[in-house]
Design a protein that fits this description.
The complex is a heterodimer of chains A (about 250) and B (about 400).
Chain A (H helix, E strand, L loop, with lengths): L3 E12 L2 E12 L3 E5 L6 H8 L7 E6 L2 E2 L4 H7 L2 E4 L11 H9 L3 H4 L10 H13 L15 H14 L4 E5 L7 H14 L4 E5 L3 H7 L2 E6 L2 E6 L1 H6 L1 H8 L5
Parallel strand pairs in A: 3-8, 3-9, 6-7, 7-8
Antiparallel strand pairs in A: 1-2, 1-4, 4-5, 9-10
Chain B lengths: L1 H24 L3 H27 L6 H19 L6 H20 L4 H21 L1 H4 L5 E2 L16 H23 L2 H11 L1 H7 L3 H27 L1 E2 L6 H14 L6 H19 L3 H15 L3 H12 L6 H37 L3 E3 L2 E3 L4 H36 L1
Antiparallel strand pairs in B: 1-2, 3-4
Helix pairs in contact in B: 1-7, 2-7, 2-10, 2-11, 2-12, 3-4, 3-5, 3-10, 4-10, 7-10, 8-9, 8-10, 11-12, 12-13, 12-14, 15-16
The chains are: A alpha/beta (about 250), B mainly alpha (about 400).
Chain lengths: ~250, ~400
Amino acid sequence: MNGNAIALHGITQRFGAQTVLDGVELNIAAGERHALIGPNGAGKSTLFGVIAGATRPTRGRVVLHGVELRGRGPVVASRLGIGRSFQQTSAFARLTVFDNLRCAALHAPAERRRWWNRLRESASVDLAATRVLHDIGLDARRDTPAAELGYAEQRALDLGVALASGARTLLLDEPTAGMSRTQAARMIALIRATTQGRTVLMIEHDMDAVFGFAERITVLVRGTVVATGEPDAIRADPVVRAAYLGEGSV
Amino acid sequence: MRSRALAGLARWSLFAACVALPAWLWPHGAMLGYLAQTAALVVLALSYNLQLGTTGLLSFGHAAFAGLGAFAAAHWFNRFGGPLPLLPLVGGMAGAGFGFVAGLLATRRSGTAFAMITLGLGECVAAAAWSVPAWFGGIGGVPIDRASGTPWGGWHFGAPVQAYAVIAAWCVVSAFAMHALTRTPLARLANAVRDNPERVAALGTDPRRVRLAMVTCASFFAGIAGTLTLIDVEIATPDSVSMARSATVLIAAVIGGTGAFFGPAAGAAMLTALSIVVAGVSRAWALYLGVLFVVIVVAAPRGIAGIAQALAHALRRGAPAAERWRMLCGVGACMFWGVAIVCAAELGYAWRFAQDDGTGLAFGAWGIDADTPAGWAVACSAAGIGTLLWGWRARFAQGAQSGKREDGR
């Protein structure tokens, strides 16, 4: 696929007097694995909200797969191919794992226009959901309500819901937050395996995960992009070291 | 899988039997009136649960759509006639139309805002019912003559039995249709909207459209329920759109339990029994209803359906003895407290009315004299025994938990 999956031009976001994002420029090529890092309060999650259409930016343009969003909201953003996992565990708590995935698979580009899918179970939707269920390794938990899953399982389901929706570009907000080191490594491996051929933009705090996973990294500090580049370049960048990595544990 | 299908079949057979058998065994006026009221409220409560249980929308104005459907059906029947058995379709279409229009406004929001908007709309309709007598018929309502429609195979539907046959058939068919609706992917999406609307929006479906679809469907069945009442009493009155009616259906759904499909139906049957049977023997029936409602909300939020499930769970084969004792103590405590509350309430009413007009009061066959201490003694001892049993229940609970913990280690 050619062109950019996500292109942000001069995104500024103000909440009252506070400027959270200040002229953010970001281009993410289709098929790229991109990580977004930065200290707490840098505006990473706000930027995700802007890309996914949940927050309308004060100024600037959001272009998703070549189409400008123009503040049209999350439903349009998802139709343009954006899928999203959430920082708070946020699958559908009282539905079973399989039903969670079936709800998501109903929205895949091939199924979306078949209105009769809303009234009748569809074999192709069930098949897609079963495939994702297998991919995220929750076969054994198929009929468990999502609220009764363990924490790591819930995060895997959250990823699965985003995957099953058939989005070309996935926004993953801290997929390994709150996990042990082994769980985090397993989650990153899962993401790597399940997102073949898709664009991934991921917010992550675990530096090992970031440097092992991403092809390019963008560093956001106080609402502005201070550096974008390949992992090695970012690691060596003196501005980044001073602003961010110096405080961390690398 | 097969046992689940069997359980479903058993449930539907029981439901159909409850609707049909009593009418077949005792086909006289009072029984048919009671059954018709129950059937109409069952449909209304089930339709209400399409909003509350399935989509998570708490509505305070649901009866408005039932009432508006009934008025539309009454006007249609008086002007165009047609066969009576098809009249509920007219009411349903009208209910769905009004529900769609109201839903355009109300479904912009969910949660408290939705509840407040429906409250306001319900008040508007209730006010309109009194202030537009040309359409709502003023205090007299809009009467119909149900025997005046096109007869079907020699049936004119004037006789109560024939009218009830129509009502019962529509009750079962509507319940079946609503059950089928709750099994569709649309209803699953409505569950998803209930659990997490932002997430549904991020998947690419506007949660508002799902809510609107479900509100429209619920209003369709509400219109059917309203028309069933119309067929039963042959009049559409402004009472049918009142807030009191909306409260009734909310109470029925919550008492029955919104988590199970047949929960609201059980609640509706219970509520009609209270308001007809108990009201016939006691003046305190509204008090009992209030107490029951509060107790259910506080102690058994999953309603009658939840209690039935818990009972079945405790009585299953191989359940630990402690669990069964616990359930037994709970049931016993509830029964004794029930006796205590009934005694106290009846004695209180008797005492009050004895002061007012000097006549004695009777609860069914028993005369009640508030001045003798015996009744009060019964009330107090029943309350004491109930509390004692509840304490034992708690001890079993602790025993079961510590047992579980030991197992865990």
